[in-house]
Amino acid sequence: MFKYLVTILTIFIITPIFAQNLSPFPVKSLWDTNILNLENDSSDEINIFSDLGAWFGFGFNENNASGFAGPYFLTEHNGYWLHNRSLELIVENEKGKKLNLECQQKAVPGALIQSLSNDSVRINTKLIYTRSNSVLVQYSLYSGKKQSYQLIFSMNEGGNIHSSEVVYSMNSGLVRFVFEKDFRLTANTATRKCNTGKDKPCVFYVEIRFEEYEKSAKHLKNNQKEQAFVDNSKRWENYLRGAKNLSSEHAELYAKSLMTLINNWRTARSALKHDGIFPSTAYKGFHGFWAWDSWKHSVALAAIEPSLAKNQIRAMFDYQNEDGMVADCIFSDTLIEKPNERNTKPPLSAWAVWQILQFDPDTAFAKEMLPKLIKYHEWWYKFRDYNNNGICEYGSNDGSLEAAAWESGMDNAVRFDSAIMIKSTDKSWSMNQESVDLNAFLCAEKIYISQIAGIAGDYQSEHEYGVMYAKSIEKIRQWFYDEETAYFFDKNTSTGKAIKIFGPEAWIMLWTGLASPDEAYGVMKIIMNEDHFNTFVPFPTLSASHPSFNPQKGYWRGPVWIDQAYFALEGLLRYGYHEEANNMMNKLLLNSEGLLNSDSAIHENYNPINGKALNASHFSWSAAHLIMLLQNKTLN
Fold first, then answer.
1. DSSP tag of 303
2. Which of 20, 311, 522, 526 is deepest in the core (most CB within 10 A)?
3. 1-32+499-636: which CATH topology?
C-alpha cells in the first residue's frame, strides 16, 4: 500500500500550464529584440545586467547615450556606481571631424548590445561576461569601403594608467579596463585608429575586470576572445531550450524571467559560502539570500543550471543551527547586516531538493542533503508545536509576533491580526494559531524526504517518512476544512475555531494534493468567484470582498504574488480543472502590467484591480515561478 501511495503521490514535477500544440519558436530570434529594459536615469532604481554570479553589473544610460552605465558594484552598503558612462565612444573620420551617430541598444539573453550608426558607418558593441569577475566587450566597425577612423573612448577621471590598463581603486578591490596594445592611453581617453575594407570590418576588444586583490589575470588572446562569444551564445541557448516550444510572447517572457534570475546571481563571497540568487538587485534591502526565496529559485533553476540550484540550497543550510533551524536570511557582510535568526521561512526545502534530483539524479547530493532536511523537518515539531498535537504553528525565537508573521512569508496577512504569542520552550514562541499552509507544506515535505531517502539509499527513512506522510493526510484535512464554507482556514489553538479569512493558504491543500476531490471542488468555486479571487489580475492575497482588502498598498492584504498564483494554478490542474487554470493563467499574464509583449521588469507583486506593477522590480521569485509555469515538462 505504501509503495502504491508513493507512486501516485510523486508530486510537482514541473508541468506547463499551456497546451503544447504551438508552433516551435526559434530561440535565436530572442536575440533580435530588447528583452529587458536596463536603462538607468536619475531615479534610485538600479537596472543592471550581470552574469555568472558577478558582484558588478552594467546597464544603459538614458536617452540612448553611447557607452554603458556602470560598473555598478554590489558591495559596501548595498552598492554604488563607479562610472555613469563607461567607455563613452567618440568617432572621428580621417579628417578629424566628429561623426554624429544614432544609438540603438538592447538587452538580450547573455549580452548587452549597442549599435552606433549613420549613413556611412556602423559600430556594433557587444558586452558579455567571461567569468564572474571579468567582462569582455567586442567592437565591430563596418563601413563597406576602405576607410580610416579615429575612435576615442572617454574615461572618467581618477584612474591610474598601467601599460595598456586603466585601473580604478576602491575599498573592495580594483577595476581594470584592459585595452589592446594598439591603443594610446592618456589621463582621460583611450584612442586607436580603425581601418576598414570593403568586406573587412575593424574588430577589437576591451576587457573589464574586477579584482578584489591586486594581482592581474593573464590577458585573453584574440582566439580566446572570439571563442568566449561562441561559448556565451551556446550557454545561453542551452539555458533557453525550455522556450523552444512556446509561442513568441511566452518565449520572450521565459527569457525575461531567466535573465532576471541570472542578473541576480551572486557567487560565494565573505559570509555567503555558496552561490545563490538575490531577491532583487534593484532594491537595496534585498542584497542577500532568503530561505523561502531560495527554495523557489532552486526549483526554477533545476532544469537550467542545476549546479547553481544546488548551491542556492547549500547557501541557506550553511546557516542551519544546532537545533536544525535554517535562518530566514543571510548576507555577505555580517558587520553591516547580520543573519536574521529570529525566524525561518515555510518548509519547502525538500521540495526544492527533490525537484533538482528530477533533472540531475545526483546520489551524492541526496546523501548530503538528507540528514539536514530531516533535522530541519524535526525542528518544526520540537519548536513550533507548543501543545504537542502534531499540528504546527508559525512562531519566532524572540517572542515577537512580527517575526512569527515573517516566518509565514506573508508578513502582514490579515489572518494573523488577532494572534498572540505563547512561549513553547526556553528559546521559542508560537502563535496561538495553527496554519493550514504550514502543515500542508510539512506533510508534503514528508513524502519528498521519503523519496530523497530512497535515492540516498536510506531505506529506513524512506519507509518511516512515507508512513508519517500517509498518517498525517487525514488529520490535516479534518482539522482545517470548514464544511460550512467549503474552504480551509487556520485554527485558533485555544478555541479550536476556524479563523475565517479567505486567503491563499487554502490553495496549498490543492497544490500538495491533500484535499479530497469534493474539498478541492469547493476551493475551486471560491477561487473562481469574482467576489473573492477571480479579479482582473487573479489570485489576490486576500479575498476582494474583505474589508481590509487593499489592492495597491496592502502587500499581503490584496496584491497578487506570482508564487501564490503558481500554487493555485498547479493545484487546479492537479484536480483536473484545466479550463479554469488556463483561463486564470491567461488573465494573470495578459493583465499584469508589463509581463507580456514588453521589456518592463518583472515585479514583486501586482495590483489585482488594475494590474499595476508594485514594489521591487527585477524580482527573482516572481521570475522563478513564471519559469515554472512556462517550463516544458519534456525538457531534456
1. T
2. 311
3. Glycosyltransferase (1.50.10)
Distances (CA, A) of 55 to 50, 73, 255, 602: 8, 6, 21, 21
What are 247-265's pLDDT values in tens digits? 999 999 999 999 999 999 9
Residue of 404, 395, 403 whose CA lies nearest to 424? 395
| 521 vs 388: CA distance, rounded Å | 32
Q: Which amino acid type is present at position 326? A: V
The fold of 41-221 is Beta-galactosidase; Chain A, domain 5 (2.70.98)
> What are the DSSP calls for 434-472, one per residue?
E-HHHHHHHHHHHHHHHHHHHHHT-HHHHHHHHHHHHHH
Output Rg (C-alpha) for the chain, integer angstroms. Answer: 26
Give the separation between CA 85 and CA 188, rounded to whole angstroms. 13
- Do 137 and 206 form a contact (C-beta atoms < 8 A)? yes
Instruction: Name every residue whose Cβ is closer than 8 Å to that of residue 44 and which is 6 or more positions away in sequence.
Output: none
Do residues 288 and 613 lie in contact, with contact meaning Cβ atoms separated by under 8 Å? no
Convert the pLDDT of each residue in 544-559 to its tens digit.
999 999 999 999 999 9
What is the maximal distance between C-alpha atoms in the chain? 88
Domain boundaries, the chain: 1-32+499-636, 41-221
Task: Give the pairing of strands 428-434 and 421-425.
Answer: antiparallel
Cβ 324 vs Cβ 375: under 8 Å: yes
> At 633, is the pLDDT very low, low, confident or very high (cuts 50, 70, 90)?
very low
- The size of the chain, in residues, is 636
DSSP string, 130-149: EETTEEEEEEEEE-SS-EEE
